Amino acid sequence: MPIVKYPRATEPLWHEWDRKAQKCGLRHRVYAVNGNHYTGEWLDNLKHGKGTQLWKCSGAIYSGDWKFGKRDGYGSYSILDPVTKEYKKVYTGWWKNDRKCGYGTTLYPSGERYEGEWSGGLRSGWGRMYYRDGSIYDGQWLQDRADGQGVLRLSNENRYEGGWKDGKKHGRGKFFYLDKGQLFEGIWAADIPKCGILIDFGRDEAPAPPQYPIPKV
């Protein structure tokens, strides 16, 4: 039997196969064993550039920017409505290292909405929250809670302006009781007014003022 001599390879053949299998630059659709799949751009075998990821189990979809395998840049995250079977956007905005970071808008299942800054996936910075009961908070946030300076407007037009800590009124602030035509200005701690002064404020225009005005000191 004749002996066949092959040319000596400069590198193992599997190196060449592996190099050809690497996804880079072009758009590819790749399915995982669990049913998840990604369609988009790649770099060094990682999701990188523009792309869309579908999570089979939850039915959630992310469409936007990727960087070395993680959501990074601008994109939207949507979930499948079990009733209408249509996709509803939950978050639209900026991402960093696979978490919400920068400016973005979130719609909550309860119908509440947040528009503002994020850090590490939590509301942090300046933002506005629209609550289910009709009240609106506009101010500073820290780790998903109102913290710093902010204004809370209630559905009856009464409002609080001042300091916040851990989601509660804290520090110097003013509470405008516009329905009664009164103003309280003082110091708060953990949502409780500790000391201050209560005066008439817009009493003549108030819809439900107390029977007697507050005596002047």
TrEMBL record:
It is found in: Cytoplasmic vesicle, Secretory vesicle, Acrosome. InterPro entries: MORN, MORN3. Coiled coil: none annotated. Transmembrane segments: none annotated. Keywords: Cytoplasmic vesicle, Repeat. One of its GO terms (cellular component) is acrosomal vesicle. It comes from the Eukaryota. Assembles a suppression complex (suppresome) by tethering SIRT1 and MDM2 to regulate composite modifications of p53/TP53. Confers both deacetylation-mediated functional inactivation, by SIRT1, and ubiquitination-dependent degradation, by MDM2, of p53/TP53, promoting a proliferative and cell survival behaviors. May play a role in the regulation of spermatogenesis. This is MORN repeat-containing protein 3. It comes from Ramphastos sulfuratus. The gene is Morn3.
